[in-house]
Amino acid sequence: MFPAGSKAGEKLSVTFLGDAAGPITRGIEVPAGPIGSMHRLFVGDDGGTCPNALPFRISASGNALEQEPNDEPAKATAADATLAFNGVIERPGDVDHFRFAAKKGQTLEVECFARRLRSGLDPVVNVLKADGGNLAGNDDSKGPDSVVRIDVPEDGDYLVRVKDHLGRGQADFVYRIEIAPPAPRLVLSIPRIDRFSQTRQTVFVPRGNRYAVLVNAARTNFDGDLVLDGGGLPPGITMTAPPIKAGQVQVPVVFEAAADAEIGGKLVTFEARQVNEQDPEGKAGVRGHFENAADFVLGDPNNAVHYSARVAKLAVAVVEAVPFSIELVPPKAPLLRNGALDLRVVVKREPGFDKPVTVEFPFRPGGVSAAPSITIPPDKTEAVYLVNADGKAATGNWPVYAIASGDIGGTAWVASAPVTLVVAEPFTAAALKRAACEQGQEARIACTLTHPRPFEGQATARLLGLPPEATAPELTFTKDTAELVFPVTTTGNSPPGNHKSVVLELVTPVGGEPTRISAGTVELKIMKPQGPTQPAAPPAAQQAAKPLSRLDQLRQQAKGGTP
User: Fold this and answer.
1) Of 41, 279, 443, 512, most Cβ neighbours within 10 A?
2) For the chain, which domains are there?
3) 301 preceded by cis ω (within 30°)?
C-alpha cells in the first residue's frame, strides 16, 4: 500500500521484510491505475527475482494507526472515518477497537484488507454501537477478508472491532480498514465451461471465421445501460456486441477474423462503460473490465486448485484457418411464449472434412430453453435446433448465435454470425371445455378463441396427447374465428378414465414459417358402456308390508292412527 498522496510515476523508497539476509530496500515507481486497483510487485536483489509477486493496491485514504491498549471498547483508538484504520493482531487473543463518528441515514461499507495483501490474518470484523452492542458483523465476505455494510441508525460514535477468526495472533497479522459509502463497481467475466479449467476463457478466432463468448456484467451499487469496448483488439479482428441493458447481466459477443489477418494475439483490456442519454459515450459513467481467476496448478484426483491468480486482461488471438464454418439461419417467425421454434443450423465443409460437428446454442433469453447440444453427422450439412419458451419468457428482439466444435486432429471451435430471435406474445388464446363419452362413441371438445394479436392467413389447431385409439381431425381457423369444436372419435378399445393431458397446439404461419404454441390442456373422460337397464323397484304400496317396530307403533298412535 503506497502512502496517501502518492502520484503515478512517483519514485518511493520501500523496505521489504522477511528475507533471510535481512531487509531489502528498493526504489519503486508508483503505477498508474484507478483508486482501489490492485497491482503486483516482484522484488529482486543480486541473487535474482522473487518468483511470486507481492500484491498491493492504490488507496486515496490517509492512515490512522492503532494505539495499544485497545482490546476493550472503552479504550478504542479514536480516528476520523475518512482515514484508513491500520493495525496488527500481534498476539493470540488480541482484539483491536477503533472509534469513529457517523451521521444518521449514512450507508457505509467497512472493508478489511488483510489476506488479499498477503497478511496471515483471517479477519472477523464487527461494527458496534458506542456502548459495545453489536450493530453488524461479517466473516469471509471477500474470500477470507470481511466487508460490513451498515445503515447508520443515529448520530453518534461507533466502533470497529477486528480479531482473528481462530483467535490467533502474530507480528505480521497486519490489516487495513477502510470506511466509505458503497462505491459502484463493474466486473466483466466469461462464464466457466468447466469449474477446474480455463477452457474457452480466452478468445481464439480462426482466419476467415468467427468465434463467440458470453460476457457477464456484474454491477455493484448501480444499474444502467452498458456498452462493451472492442478497442485494442489484434489487427484483423472485429467485434459485434449488443448493448447490455439495465437489469441485464449477460450478452453474446461475436469476434470475426479477416481471411488475411496476421496470426498472433495480445492481452486486451476488455472494458465496458455505463452510458445514458446525457452521456452516450460513457465518459463519466462507471467503467469496469474483464477479470478472471486463472487456475495454473490443479491437484489430482480431487481437482483442488493449488495455485491460481487473478488476471485483468483478456487473451485474444488469430489462429490458423479451420476446414468448416457454421451459419445460423435467421428465423422469419417469432418464438412465442408457451411455444417452440425450429432454428436451422448449416455447416459448410471444406473438401476432405468429414467429421461430425457438435453445435451449441449458448445464449438464451430468460424463459427460453434448448438442448445442451445437437450433432450434425458427417454426411449432413444442416440440422434443426429446437428452442422453447415458457409462459414468462422475456419478450423482445434478442441477438443469438450458435457455436460449434469439430475434430481436426484436436478440437476446433467456430461460431455463427449473430442473428435476431424475436420472442413475442402468442397470436391466439384458447379456453377449452371438458368433454366425455362412452367407449366407441364420439366426444366433442369445444374451444373458444380470442386473438390478442391479428395474423394473416389460416392457422391450424390440433389435439395432442389423445389416449390410444382416440382421434380428432386438425381444424383450421383465422383471426376472425371465435370457436372450434373437435369431434373426438373413440373405439371400444379406447381406455376408460379421466385423460387430463390432452393438449391444444396452435400453429400460425409467419413469413412462411410456422410458430407453435401450447394453448392449454383439457380433460377427456371416457366411460365404459352402461349394462342393461335394471327393472324399477315396485312402489312402496305394492311392497310387502313389514311389521312395525314398537317405536313405530307408538309414533303412529301419537298421530291418531291405528296401532
Assistant:
1) 443
2) 11-49 (no CATH), 63-183 (2.60.120.380), 186-319 (2.60.40), 324-424 (2.60.40.10), 429-527 (2.60.40.3670)
3) yes
